[in-house]
Design a protein that fits this description.
There is one protein chain. This protein is of the alpha/beta class. The chain has 2 domains: 223 residues, Zn peptidases (Aminopeptidase); 75 residues, OB fold (Dihydrolipoamide Acetyltransferase, E2P), CATH 2.40.50. 18% of the residues lie in helices and 32% in strands. Helix 1 links the parallel strand 4 and strand 5. The C terminus is likely disordered.
């Protein structure tokens, strides 16, 4: 059902739920889907691009800004739909430009009620506002997808590589992960409460793409992310295949975890993003306010730096480095790129 548009967007369709069949073929439509209302009864609407091809095919979903302060995803979305030509597309590409609309407007990672929207899935039809929002987002939008790439960045005070989380024992998700051309892939069975995990339970192959640092547009990572999305669409037969130089194989990890401080102070992290470390290497030093060394932190095992803390002011229990344990993909029967 189409709703009236009092939001001030010219030419934008306002819908109660995503209805691809109601949208024109061979065009990219701008759509707002209404999910909940604020305390004054005003609608909170999710903005989307919907590129509907001339020929039938699958529906590929892209989602951005599930966390309201992770914004590199947004220019990736813009660039994808800038080059995407619906007249040459088989199927439909849906780009949810901002999932967590209230969080973005409040300059924060969390939803209105302070909850992590990416730990609130699948939500509840009769729950609190974040649960209802999550439930309706899945029911009104995500249920239309056949595939999903959920785009993220690091949060405040951290930095990330370009890396993908995926269940690498799932052949379709594994191939999507390789085609996304990341620096690192971390095998991660679908976690409860995440958008990716919930999509997988809905039989929608899904990956999470982490695109560098928060509040900072790194053009090279944006470019690589866009090319990766193009490669996935080509592999699915939604676009005419063109030769794309995939570059070096990603480093593959069978798991990853953070190293944390056990004391407060001023933190200096030593390795860089994507750097390899060996077990017992010093990865950080902690000093007190007078500049005196109080702690050295060492890598618990060999691995690659997936992400790290950039905030020197560290309380007890602060994150230091995100280490991935590197493996040979063949040892775990992962789907190889192009296989």
């Amino acid at each position: 059902m189409q709703l009236s548009d009092e939001g001030g967007f010219s030419g934008v369709r306002v819908l109660e739920a995503l209805d691809i069949e109601s949208l024109p073929v061979g065009r990219t439509s701008q759509v707002l889907v209404e999910l909940v209302h604020d305390g004054l009864g005003r609608p909170i609407r999710v903005p989307m691009f919907v590129a509907r091809g001339r020929l039938p095919g699958p529906t590929f979903g892209l989602t951005a800004a599930v966390h309201g302060n992770e914004l590199t995803d947004v220019p990736v979305m813009h660039q994808v739909f800038d080059w995407l030509d619906p007249k040459k597309l088989k199927g439909t590409v849906v780009g949810v430009i901002v999932v967590n609309v209230p969080g973005l407007l409040m300059f924060q990672r969390e939803f209105i009620d302070g909850s992590d929207l990416n730990r609130s899935m699948p939500g509840r039809a009769n729950g609190n506002i974040s649960q209802v929002y999550a439930h309706r987002f899945l029911d009104r939008i995500v249920r239309c997808f056949d595939f999903l790439a959920d785009l993220h960045t690091a949060s405040f005070g951290r930095a990330n590589s370009l890396y993908v989380r995926a269940d690498m024992t799932h052949p379709v998700a594994a191939k999507m992960a390789y085609l996304q051309r990341p620096q690192i892939i971390v095998h991660s069975p679908a976690a409860d409460g995440t958008l990716r995990g919930t999509a997988m339970t809905m039989n929608i192959p899904a990956i999470t793409v982490e695109i560098g640092d928060p509040q900072l547009f790194k053009q090279e990572l944006i470019r690589r992310s866009v090319l990766g999305i193009r490669a996935m669409l080509s592999e699915l037969g939604m676009l005419t295949k063109t030769k794309i130089a995939l570059g070096a194989d990603p480093v593959v990890c069978d798991r990853s975890s953070w190293v944390y401080t056990d004391h407060g102070g001023l933190l200096q992290v030593l390795p860089k993003i994507t750097e390899r470390v060996q077990a017992n290497d010093v990865v950080a030093r902690l000093t007190n306010v007078f500049g005196e060394l109080t702690r050295e932190y060492r890598a618990p095992e060999a691995g690659v730096v997936v992400g790290l803390s950039t905030n020197p002011v560290s309380q007890t229990g602060a994150r230091i480095v995100h280490l991935g344990r590197v493996v040979d993909p063949a040892e775990l029967s992962f789907q190889r790129r192009g296989g």
